[in-house]
Sequence to fold (728 residues):
Amino acid sequence: MIEGSEFNKLILETIDEHCEDPDIKTLIQKSLRYELDIWNRHIRSSEIEDEYTQMVEDVLRRRLK
Amino acid sequence: MKYAISSISICNYRQYNGTQILDFKFDKIKNVSLILGKNGAGKSNLLNAITWCLYGIEIHKTKDKYDSKGMPIINARALKTLKNTQTITAEVVIHLITDSGPWTIKRTLDGGKSALGDFYFDDISKLTVIHEVNGQDKIEQGDETQILINNLLPEALKNFFFIDGEQLREFFKVSTPENISQAIDIVSQLELVYKAEEHLSKVENNLRKSVKNTTPQLERVQNNIELAQKKSLALKSTIKDIEKQKEKDFEELGEVKDYLKSHSSLKIATLENERQALEIDIRKLKEQIGRKESQRNSYLVEIAPFIYLKKEIKQTYKIMEEKVEKGELPPRIKETFIKELLEKGYCICGNELKGESRKILEEYSKKVSLSELSEISIVGKTTIEDIFSSINEFPEKIDELNEEIEDFKDQLERKERRIEHISDEIKEYNIAEIRRYEERREELNRLIAQNEQILLLHNSDMNTLTTTLKELKDDEERELSKDKKNNALKEKLLLVQSALKVFGNTEKIIKTKIRTQVEKSLNDNFKILIRKKTAFSSISIDENYEVKVHHIDGYNVINDLSAGEYLILGLSFMSALMTISGFQAPVIIDTPLGKIDDEHREYITTELPKFLTGTQLILLVTPTEYDNNVKANLNHYLLKENFYRISENSDQTESMVGRDDGC
Fold:
């Protein structure tokens, strides 16, 4: 699936309207994308935390580039 | 991804013995498929077969948990025919047409009969998905396969597409505002926003803790460095001022001394010359005393432990001497040397080693090689002898050093006394200027000595301060290396907090927008589907998610609707949610027309297929629902190939499904 393609457009549009920082936007999109991926799946909370930590690191690494 | 069901194959599932196949043709206009069956014939189990295949859940049952006392999921008659140790599988296969090619979804549950004749069933069913990837069929199995299905239509949304007509009619009768709010949250994916917020908050808490724990000392250390640096600067400045003053006093003292030394009075000049020579001697004597005292002190430190242990050392030495006497401790002679003598057969004096003397040497050789300890004991004995002799020398040596020091001190005292006399003599001289100079000389000496004392203290303070500062800087370096990590953590924390802020700011706005959108869509759908177009002015969903159906006269008639109106309200709401969700799946309704009046039946069957144009609509109806009017209405939207009828065996325990040719 393409990132954000199946999200409710209204949610993404509203977030877009209220967020100017591209990094924050990316983190939000990534987190929503991940939540969609794990929707209705039983994932260990530690695994979710690791995934989120990785997301934050990825966004910051991209900012440094 | 949009999809439609192209066929369903059911084998040994519930009351369906053997394999039953339902093929569906999809047409955008003729979008209705019909499965006709009496109450209890197996319509609901067809819907159950679909949800079980897709999600492992039968719509009215808990996931993969079967009531051991109830009907098994595997067909009862098929089980009955099993012999001991034979196995059997219940299977539902659904073929889909999707935007990205055909999909096959298969779910099976294995069971069998044990050697003792008991039936057993697997706890978990198996899911297989075959779909096209880059033009090739890909077979997926295992834990992650369910994600593929959820990508087509998430499990949480299944009730908005696979609908139990009875439940739909009851939806607004029994639903609370919380149910409505929750349904909207699920389909609009706002639930994902809440989850993302919840998980980001956890990350925020972890990061906050880490930031706090990384450099709790840095601020304190840096404050202490600042204080120490300020103190150090102030002290340096004080030391510099005192040194300047001391220099000035020295210069003046030199001038005073020069004045007295070169005075025309021979007596004064001589006295001053003598005094200056004495001062040089005194300086030298003080240095000598210092050196000697340091020598004596080092000696005392070195010898003190031996003196303290004198008794024990003496005792040890005595024991060793006795051992030597007994021949238990040999003298320091190398074993190799004795062996060499024995091999050569001659003594170092040239005499031949034979008889008694050879025998003695051979015995001695054995003693020498007793053990390594004997060598250590020899070295130990020699060392103790040295220590013992130095203990004996101690009184003499310390007296000698003390005498030398005393001698230097006597000389010093004499010279200092002489200087005092010289000073007294000069002060008593009859020339006032000389007396004044001498008094100034004394004053300067006192000031210089006093400043030297102060400098000594200040320099000691300065040394302490320098050491403290160095230690603090080391601490700071350590804390700063942690601080680098801390800055990275702070950056992360800021990013997470900013994201949470955006979520917080937009959440309410999103929810209001979605609620407004659902409300609008609900109104539009209701207006299309409801027969009494003028009786109801509007439907509202207020901010507390309370649904109100407004009568033209202003009353809220949500509790006064007929069964047909409730069904239409439910359908309108479900359709609104489907639109919001963005997922395009078939809509399957079990018993959509039960308990509703003829007029609404007719109206729904005319309007619903039109309303859902482009969406596959599978209706599971009873013969009572499928009356002549309904039949006539649905004929416009029903392809002959998509009409199935469920029939039962004579004792009504088995069902078969086949195409109905009487359409």
Observations:
- Residues 432-529 of chain B form the longest helix (98 residues).
